[in-house]
Amino acid sequence: MRGSGFWLGVAIAAMPVPLWANEPAATDEANEEIVVTARRSGAPMWTIETRAGVVILVGEIAAVPKATPWRPERLEGATDRAQRVILGTKAKVSPGDILRLIFKGGGLTKLPKGRVAADYLTADQLKRLRALETRFDQDYARSNFLMTAFDLLSKRLSFNKDSADDASDVVRKAARQSKIPTRPVGEVRGEDMLDNLFAAAPETHIPCLEAAMAATEAGGDIVMERGRAWTEFDVPAVMASPLEEALGRCWPWTNDGFGPELRQTWVGAIRDATAQQGVTLAVVPLRILAEDGGVLDLLKAQGLPITGPAW
């Protein structure tokens, strides 16, 4: 299972940061060449062309299987020739935050003292959980539902085993090597993340647990099916995947404060980028882009010309 930094930093909202200074304009031919190169990588993407330039939105999923046939080197090539890059939120975690997680981590891993799963779950939910306990020789009776869900997805379903670099990792490395200006879409304090997570009642994680159980019950084939749909630009199939559904129903995606703010932060950053000359390459979580009422829907409603696969 990946460390807490992976889960805490998957999709945390933050405020926009200032725009870059104006850069020299690229030619239309150069812009088109970058777009074509990015499309050939196999990652689903959308473009917004304006008089000033073009914005490329790469829809990212977590833990792309190595066996999934996509070409990250082509995304690197597109990054090398972009004028700027926008990546996901950056978590500012202090040593104090880490110590707090160590000393108070029991509040995240276990249900409240004296309580067990049967105190919260319906008879059907409890029956399914006990069947998974038997199947995997585990005891989830006292485990925090969020931790149980992560255990099911990471260790039992093994969705992030034998996975390649995510699109944001590929773009970040390429941008660093080519000295392309890069910024996160926003930042969030580790203290705020922990406060929110510690304050969450056990009941709030039951939808996450239920989705994780459904994904685990569906079996390991859904991992490859989701990856294959991603490389085939079948965005509705990715969004309908039990695995993608489970990841999207777990904290922090479902937090009432983080989720809506994250969407609006991305919308604002992309609108700002449409006024910039040349090519802006942004790597955005596919769920944030393609969900009902997500970033693509919001941008389309604002009249921006979006080209790319159906979502």
Task: Give short descriptive properties of this protein.
16 helices; two-stranded parallel ribbon; single chain
Percentage of β-strand residues: 5-15%
Main sheet: strand order: 5-3-7-2-1-8
Sheet with the most strands, sense and barrel status: 6 strands, mixed
Which H/E pattern describes the elements? Answer: HHEEHEEHHHHHEEHHHHHHEHHE
Oligomeric category: single chain
Question: Overview of this structure, please?
Answer:
- It is a single chain.
- By secondary structure, this protein is of the alpha/beta class.
- 49% of the residues lie in helices and 12% in strands.
- It is built from 16 helices and eight strands.
- A six-stranded mixed beta sheet has the order 5-3-7-2-1-8, sandwiched between helices. Strands 4-6 form a two-stranded parallel sheet.
- A hairpin with a 3-residue loop joins β1 and β2 (53-60).
- α10 packs antiparallel against α13.
Write the layout of secondary structure elements.
Elements: H1 4-8, H2 28-39, E1 45-49, E2 53-60, H3 72-80, E3 84-87, E4 90-92, H4 95-104, H5 106-109, H6 123-136, H7 145-156, H8 167-178, E5 182-184, E6 187-189, H9 190-199, H10 206-218, H11 221-231, H12 235-240, H13 242-248, H14 258-273, E7 278-285, H15 286-290, H16 295-301, E8 306-307
Parallel strand pairs: 2-7, 3-5, 3-7, 4-6
Antiparallel strand pairs: 1-2, 1-8
Tell me briefly what this model is.
The chain is an alpha/beta fold.
